């Protein structure tokens, strides 16, 4: 819980750099996924950016599946200016907990290179776009 609180504080501090803000958003995103909290997940993203993630979370919840782990592992993060950070990342170890209590380890992702555009909205950092 302490890590989540620290992440939430970092997101409202104007001096938080973009790579640190993205790391804090990763903590909130993982907490939302593991708790199945759609509202928490929606606060990670700007209005357009999180649609895919929100739809996926809703689909998992409808099937009665929750996740454990679901943390982003980042090999690099470089502030590219204009709100964007260039990252190389993948989903870390994640386990699906099925309605019957069974556990299934999800396949490991490969590394992906992305540009994540962050913005400060209503006094906090959010993900505006991922490309």
General description of the model:
It is a single chain. The protein has 131 residues and is an alpha+beta fold. The protein contains four helices and seven strands, in the order ααααβββββββ. It has helices at residues 2-12, 18-35, 38-42, 51-62; strands spanning 66-69, 72-81, 84-91, 94-97, 103-105, 112-121, 124-130. The strands form two sheets. A four-stranded antiparallel β-sheet has the order 2-3-6-7, with helices on one face. The protein has a three-stranded antiparallel β-sheet with strand order 1-4-5. α1 (2-12) crosses α2 (18-35). The longest helix has 18 residues, at 18-35. The model has no long low-confidence stretch (mean pLDDT 94).
Fill in the keyword field for this structure.
131 residues, alpha+beta, four-stranded antiparallel beta sheet, 35% helix
Q: In brief, what are we looking at here?
A:
This protein has helices spanning 2-12, 18-35, 38-42, 51-62; strands spanning 66-69, 72-81, 84-91, 94-97, 103-105, 112-121, 124-130. It is α+β, with helices and mostly antiparallel strands.
Q: What structural class do you assign from the helix and strand content?
A: alpha+beta
**Topology pattern, helix = H, strand = E:** HHHHEEEEEEE
- Order of strands across the widest beta sheet? 2-3-6-7
Largest sheet: 4 strands, antiparallel
- Bin the strand percentage: 35-45%
Shape: globular
Mean residue pLDDT: 94
Q: How is the quaternary structure best described?
A: single chain
Extract low-pLDDT stretches: none
Rounded radius of gyration (Å)? 15 Å
> Helicity level, as a percent range?
25-40%
Q: Number of helix segments? A: 4
Task: Find the count of extended strands (DSSP E, 2+ residues).
Answer: 7
Distance between the termini: 31 Å
């Amino acid at each position: 819980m302490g890590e989540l609180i620290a992440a939430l504080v970092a997101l409202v501090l104007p001096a938080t750099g973009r790579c640190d803000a993205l790391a804090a958003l990763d903590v909130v995103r993982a907490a939302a996924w593991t708790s199945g909290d759609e509202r928490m997940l929606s606060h990670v993203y700007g209005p357009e950016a999180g649609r895919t993630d929100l739809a996926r979370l809703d689909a998992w919840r409808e099937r009665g599946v929750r996740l454990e782990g679901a943390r982003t592992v980042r090999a690099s993060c470089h502030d590219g200016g204009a709100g964007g950070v260039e990252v190389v990342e993948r989903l870390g170890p994640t386990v699906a907990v099925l309605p019957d209590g069974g556990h299934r380890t999800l396949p490991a992702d490969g590394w992906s290179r992305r540009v994540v555009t962050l913005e400060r909205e209503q006094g906090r950092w959010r993900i505006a776009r991922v490309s």
